[in-house]
Amino acid sequence: MPTPPALHWSVDNCTVERAMSVLGEKWTLVVLREVFTGIRRFDDMRVRTGIPRQVLTNRLSTLVENGVLRREPYREPGSRVRHEYRLTPKGFDLYPVMIALAEWGNRYLADPEGPPIEYAHRDCGAELHINVACADGHTVESKREIHPRPGPGAHPR
């Protein structure tokens, strides 16, 4: 059996691995799901998700440190200043990732009555779907048309 060409290239600077170091833990994506659906306050996230307090604190800190979320102060009357968490431009760029994860989960893991969340186009209300297109604008119809190859930052092994 011939050696796969990918074995000739290093993965030391892999951006997928780097992205997963920020996003690759279950609770991180649950936190992002909450923020994308408008839940921005720590206590609201805790109540809605059941994430342990320290885990939620750690996940929010990681997302803030990596520029995915920003802390925005607010104060309820008679209370101390607290923070809510808002998406940064870097965070908003994760929308396609969230939609793709939800679409995959809705297809393969939803309850018989259907998915618990759908992403829709605000203007017309139609459900959103992720499509793959090349830089020249061609829509990729079959996943088998996708060919991973070394990029400009690839280093020989």
TrEMBL record:
Coiled coil feature spans: none
Protein keywords: DNA-binding, Transcription, Transcription regulation
Pfam family for this entry, one: HxlR
Superkingdom of origin organism: Bacteria
UniProt domain HTH hxlR-type: residue ranges: 14-113
Entry-linked PANTHER family: TRANSCRIPTIONAL REGULATOR, MARR FAMILY (PTHR33204), TRANSCRIPTIONAL REGULATORY PROTEIN (PTHR33204:SF36)
Listed name of the protein: Helix-turn-helix domain-containing protein
